[in-house]
Amino acid sequence: MPELPEVHALASDLDARLRGRVIDRLQVVAFPALKSYDPPLDALAGETVSSVTRHGKFLDLATDSGVHLVMHLARAGWVRWRAGEPKSSGRPGSGPLAARLVLRDDGAGFDVTEAGSKKSLAIHLVRDPAEVPGIARLGPDPLADDFTLERFRAILAGQGRAQLKGVLRDQSVIAGVGNAYSDEILHLARMSPYKPAAMGDEDSAALYAALRTTLRDAVARTESVAATELKAEKKANLRVHGRFGEPCPVCGDRIQQVIFADRTFQYCPTCQTGGKKLSDRVLDRLLT
């Protein structure tokens, strides 16, 4: 799933390519992905792109007239730049193409794709990004200047006994962090995914530093990476997420994981849980 650093990179790349360009049309091929009806899709025709930014994990393409194309790529969505006229018709079908934006003059633009059978991609055409329910519910951006240690401590205190893994992933609490980077943040902070959010000043300062460092480093790495290579770059630089069974890069212990219905998380027992292996009901059943 694209998280804050990857969406930040996509927004920067698209902003450089699209700012000042005139849109010819937006075609939505996977109609269930379109979550809005007003303004209509043809409202983008003839509009000039003023910026491409992000809100958490949402991409926001804004036009001079104030119409916004907002997209959430969900677990398997992606944006692929197309340098010229599309070779295919973009008609509805069983392929991964969900939507296509075409520019005037040369037909360049981008395709929005979604792999797999579970379709969660969301496309909104709105006059104000706050009209998108997911954006309206977003918590603060962890890389914003006003996301201070004091503000972070207040957030943690408000979450009480809630487990850190869930708190970091809750978009209404902190925007932009998903499954992978929450694993990385907790590993860097040397904290259990099950640790309660309410904690002392020393621990909260360590977690705050890990949060900002992990995301800032990832954003910095993506600045010179092509969009087609972002997924591989992310995977190559993860220390624990997706590395079950491999040695921890810090202590050498075997990285463990916990499996839920539709996702897993990874951690290092030595670095994060005092050597204790967290209960994994799925694996425990398989081994008994």
TrEMBL record:
Domain spans labelled Formamidopyrimidine-DNA glycosylase catalytic: 2-107
Top-level taxon of origin: Bacteria
Keyword field contains DNA damage: yes
SMART domains: Fapy_DNA_glyco, H2TH
Catalytic activity annotation: 2'-deoxyribonucleotide-(2'-deoxyribose 5'-phosphate)-2'-deoxyribonucleotide-DNA = a 3'-end 2'-deoxyribonucleotide-(2,3-dehydro-2,3-deoxyribose 5'-phosphate)-DNA + a 5'-end 5'-phospho-2'-deoxyribonucleoside-DNA + H(+); Hydrolysis of DNA containing ring-opened 7-methylguanine residues, releasing 2,6-diamino-4-hydroxy-5-(N-methyl)formamidopyrimidine
Cofactors (names): Zn(2+)
Domain FPG-type stretches: 239-273
Family matches, as PROSITE patterns: FPG_CAT, ZF_FPG_1, ZF_FPG_2
Pfam family for this entry, one: zf-FPG_IleRS
Record-linked InterPro entries: DNA_glyclase_Znf_dom_DNA_BS (IPR015887), FPG_cat (IPR012319), FPG_N (IPR035937), H2TH_FPG (IPR015886), Ribosomal_uS13-like_H2TH (IPR010979), Znf_DNA_glyclase/AP_lyase (IPR000214), Znf_FPG/IleRS (IPR010663)
Keywords associated with the record: DNA damage, DNA repair, DNA-binding, Glycosidase, Hydrolase, Lyase, Metal-binding, Multifunctional enzyme, Zinc, Zinc-finger
Family named by the database record: Belongs to the FPG family.
Protein name: Formamidopyrimidine-DNA glycosylase
Protein source organism: Homoserinibacter gongjuensis
